[in-house]
Amino acid sequence: MTTPPLYPIGDVARRTGLSVSAIRFYAEEGVVKPTSHTDGGYRLYDVEAVARLELVRTLRDLGASLEDVRRLLADETSLQDLATTHLVIVERQLRHLKARRAVLRTIVGQETDARRISLMQELVSMSDEDRERLLDEFWNEVTDGLDVHPAFVEHLHGMRPVLPEEPDSEQLQAWIELADMVRDADFRAEVREFFHTAFASPKSTVVTSPEMLAGMEAHRVAQIEARDAERAGVDPDSPEGKEIAGRLLATLARLTAGVTGREPDLGELRRSMTETAPEVDEHARRAATRFGVLLDRYVTLTETISGRPAPDFGDVGASDEWIAAAVSAL
Predict the structure, then answer these.
(1) Rounded to two decimals, what is the model's pTM?
(2) Are 220 and 160 in contact (CB under 8 A)?
(3) Alpha-carbon distances, residue 152 vs 6, 25, 219, 265 (angstroms)
(4) How far apart are CA 219 and CA 317, in angstroms?
(5) Which CATH class is domain 7-71?
(6) What are residue 7's phi and psi, to 5 degrees?
(7) Most exposed among 1, 172, 197, 239, judged by the fewest C-beta atoms under 10 Å?
(8) Residuewise pLDDT in 10s, the chain (330 residues)
(9) For residue 7, what are the β-bridge partners?
């Protein structure tokens, strides 16, 4: 019967990539003991012991503690359970490293004092619950006492980002900027003043009802269709142009009826669209423009964090001339 080969500690070190002192340490700690000793007391290791030392090195490189390794080799835990535990640790460390990278890139890209560095590290290290709490505090403050439909307040609260589990550097930098923005007292005061001024009308509750919000969205979609048609070279008096004009007129009529409480005169509404924008549409334009000036950066950052394309507030709707021509052709 062939005797299994035994390797002296120097050969084992070369095979495993471990230092001689590390192999001695693992032997003394009872992690991987030598198979036998020479008459002179030198350690000898068989193939199985060498394989166990190679596993020890791999696990230690992956961050496993000595106690974890000892438990695994003693069959007190499985390799899968150990790997699962350390995968969670590694992923957490990776998120922290990405967060630090985002802070460092932000520092490199702009002049930053020590106080702001500490603030950025705090913002990027927030838990999901902390992020939600910060945004709730922001929207609660700017909408407090606002005389609008509750659904509108809920809609505003929904204007928040969703930071993915593995955000990239751009998303983390966007979160730092957004969190810093909503914590700024001046920004909160300005947003609050905008909403309380924009919705000071006695009809604000009606205008912000779910039905009106749905009507505004339908009108916005029709405006985008008109914009795309004009860019595509569609003649306003063509069948397609007239169909889009019909949707613009219909959606605007529903909005006007919602505001006034009565059905509008379609002839008058059509004439107003071919001359100057009707009052409700002009009011919406002014409100949208001011909203864009004030909150377009907030929305852009929100979409960047969530991995969605940012909207262009100044790029909605066809030209007044195209709309007037299309409506005139009805």
Answers:
(1) 0.58
(2) no
(3) 78, 67, 17, 28
(4) 10
(5) mainly alpha
(6) -120, 135
(7) 1
(8) 567 899 999 999 999 999 999 999 999 998 899 999 998 999 999 998 898 898 889 888 877 888 888 888 888 777 677 677 777 777 777 777 776 776 677 667 666 666 666 666 676 677 788 889 999 999 999 999 999 999 899 989 999 998 887 777 788 788 888 988 999 999 999 999 999 988 888 888 888 889 888 888 888 888 888 899 989 999 989 999 999 989 988 988 888 888 777 888 888 888 877 764 444 445 555 555 556 677 888 989 999 999 887 666 555 667 878 888 888 888
(9) 45
Three-state DSSP class for residue 188: helix
Tell me the residue type at 183: R
DSSP class per residue in 105-118: HHHHHS---HHHHH
Strand partners, 36: 44
Cβ atoms of 14 and 49 within 8 Å: the answer is: no
Which part of the chain is CATH 1.10.1660.10? 7-71
DSSP 24-54: HHHHHTTSS--SEE-TT--EEE-HHHHHHHH
Q: How far apart are CA 169 and CA 103, in angstroms?
A: 9
Give the burial class of 206: count Cβ atoms within 10 A of its Cβ; 0-12 exposed, 13-18 middle, 19 or more buried: middle
Interacting residues of 55 by C-beta distance below 8 A, sequence separation 6+? 73
At 54, the amino acid letter reads E
What does the alpha-carbon distance between residue 162 and residue 165 come to, in Å, rounded to a whole number?
9
Token pair of 52 as six digits: 């166990």
Gap between the terminal Cα atoms of the chain: 102
